[in-house]
Amino acid sequence: MRSSPSPRCGIVTTVTRLAAHDVGTWRLVAQRVVPPLPGAAAVVEHLAAVQAQDLRAAATAVALRTPEGTTDGLAAALDAGTVVRSWPMRGTLHLLGAADLGWVLDLCAGRAETAMRRRRAELGISPADLDVARTTATGFLTREGASRAELLAAFEAAGQATAAGRGYHLIVHLALTGVLCQGPLRGREQLFVPVDGWVTDRRVPQDPLAEWTRRYLRGHGPATPADFAAWTKLALGQARRGFAAVREEFEAVLVDDVEHLVAPEVPDLVAAHRRAARSLHLLPGFDEFLLGYADRSHVLAPEHADRVAPGGNGVFRGTVVVGGTVAGTFTRDGTGLAHAPFAPFSAAQATALARRSATYPAGWFA
Asked: Which GO terms describe its molecular function (predicted)?
């Protein structure tokens, strides 16, 4: 990182330039892979939202950012109602703080709901059917929760067919419109609960766009408006307005002459934890380190992208990260991990890999 003078409106200001190869290190620190946060709820709060269509991977991503390194913390937060799982952005499941669910849905879920309308004609779902599903869910769901099978059976009993994706569509619609979410656990299954009966503490920020931009940058910077737009599926113009609203709260750095914003505490945290951040890390599939950005080229060489998400099918493998960049992938192999480096690891890296593999998060979801 270096600073250089830059004239602006006749005034010489200082611009911080961040080398592209350091972006990953800064993001690992901003995302608190290093140093960790106190617990699972704090991790979800800090990251704003954690992609979670694979709940096991999401629980591992959260655990890796806590001192205890166990997925039990997330299970407890879900049971306590401080963290929920829903479809707040991109039509994709995420973990987020229960208090944030309502206003984030209002801000971000509109595009997904609009896209789903086009699918309803194909599924034979009318507005009257949606009303029946809503009435059924609100009458059936309690704080005790219901499994997916139980909820679908309730729809069937109300005359709503659930085969061929129809039941899934009804559930997602009710989630996008704030009727239900996923909360507590029964064994290894997450249950559906009514938002009105489950979420007792609700935030209502004065400026939702500015607040969600702020939250994103605190947990993901250095980042650009394009990154935020990709993460939220908001229009790029909205993302730019969000950045403009909070710009003075963040530090600007130039990466390849493109301005990125980053939380003001991150440079000092990087200085204090640089060695740990640049050491070897194992991050699960769908981790925010990759999925939190439009441009992943600073941390994943384009020629290796297909090895992380084969065929571009949206399914991400776990990654081995060294020096802030992705150096290989891994998958679960029975009770252990099978590694696939992009290039042979050094003896020291192989030792670190074995150590990280032995301490990979365990617990309820493992």
From this structure: DNA binding
What pLDDT does 364 receive?
60
Q: Is 149 exposed, middle or buried (0-12, 13-18, 19+ CB in 10 A)?
A: exposed
Q: State the Cα–Cα distance between residues 144 and 315, nearest whole angstrom.
A: 32
Question: Does the pLDDT of residue 13 top 50, yes or no?
Answer: no
Q: What average pLDDT does the chain have?
A: 94
Collect contacts of 100-103 with beta carbons under 8 A, ≥24 apart: 100/48, 100/203, 101/178, 101/181, 101/195, 101/199, 101/202, 102/178, 102/195, 102/199, 102/202, 102/204, 103/202, 103/203, 103/204, 103/205, 103/208
What's the confidence (pLDDT) of residue 3?
56
Residue 137 burial (CB count, 10 A): 22
pLDDT score at 6: 47
Find where tokens 């972006």 sit: 23
- Cβ distance 75 to 365 under 8 Å? yes
* Dist. CA 220–CA 240, nearest whole Å: 16
Sorted by where each starts, the structural domains of the chain and their CATH numbers stand as 100-198 (1.10.10)
pTM higher than the cut 0.85:
yes
Q: Give the list of residues 6+ apart from residue 132 with CB closer than 8 angstroms, or none.
A: 158, 159, 160
